[in-house]
Amino acid sequence: MQTIPAENIPATGSLQIRVGDSVIDEATIAGEMQFHPAASHDVAARAAARALVIQELLRQRAMMLDLHNDAHTAPDDYYPGESDIAQMLDRELQVPDPDEDACRRYHAHHPERFCEPPQYRVRHILLAAAPDDAEGRDRQYRQAGKLVKSLAKQGERFTELAQRHSSCPSRDQGGELGWLQPGQTVSELDRALEHLPTGLHDRPLASRYGWHVVCVDERREKLALPFDAVRDRVVRELTEQATRMALRHYLLALEAEIGVEGFSLDDDAMDGSLVR
What range(s) does the PpiC domain occupy (predicted)? Predict the structure, then answer.
């Protein structure tokens, strides 16, 4: 990161953030913004400034600890890299291991986080039409509606009609998609499957690919897993939470010790802003 000794900065009135004896100027913040896309310029600029402040605090702390001796590098040539910062944090962050009681309480209070996802055994017939083909989509919708009406009376014809009409490769299996979990099919169908009951859906469902005649043959609802089956996941989540909290306290302590002007880490969420 480019920093400039404070005494060499002209008083231009532009945005400047001081971290110890270094200044992060407006141009540096602008260059960092490409790594922090956001809905507005101000939000992106603040995220970029936060990341630069954190990086500079960590750099200066590494210099205080004389890490260049560990790197066998002359002091004047040393600039802490990501591996140096990671080693420093391993040394300095105090992250307690979660005990058994804490893990069991967390599991009991957050059962939704430790579940088998729902599953759906699905068949479909795709009547293909491009999103920008209004005429084609209207035509295929009418055709899909006819198929729904026909299948409502003669459900045993699903395989035949899928092989005749579907544009999906699953037509060779009679429209069978097998067991699906959330995230395994196109997002429009994914959202619908969460709520569809078993059986033939009574109207075509739209997606970017066209219209789908959908039959849910079987559902397996979300199933909460016992603690012993997810112990490692619980420990990992609690450790990650404790690490984030320890890192926040560590950075706030560095901010107070080294000194930051023009920005306050205490006003912002710092998770994920550590080192690019």
Answer: 117-218
Tokens, residue 107: 């599991």
First to last CA, the chain: 11
pLDDT value at residue 10: 42
- Decide if 163 contacts 171 (C-beta within 8 A): yes
Tallying the residues shown for the chain, one arrives at 276
CB 216 within 8 A of CB 196: yes
Write down the pTM of the prediction: 0.61
Would you tell me how many other CB atoms lie within 10 Å of the CB of residue 236? 12
59, 79 contact by CB (below 8 A):
yes
Q: In the numeric block, which tokens belong to residue 235?
A: 């420990």
pLDDT for 272 equals: 46
Question: What is the four-CA torsion angle of 248, 253, 254, 255, rounded to 10 degrees?
Answer: 90
In three state form, how does the secondary structure of 65-124 look? CCHHHCCCCCHHHCCCCHHHHHHHHHHHCCCCCCCHHHHHHHHHHCHHHCEECCEEEEEE
Which domains, from first to last, does the chain contain?
4-98+234-267 (no CATH), 118-221 (3.10.50.40)
**Exposed, middle or buried: residue 80 (CB in 10 Å: 0-12, 13-18, 19+)?**
buried
Tens digit of each residue's pLDDT (9 = 90 or more) over 18-60: 999 999 999 999 999 999 998 899 999 999 999 999 999 999 9
Strands 260-261 and 119-128, how do they pair?
Answer: unpaired
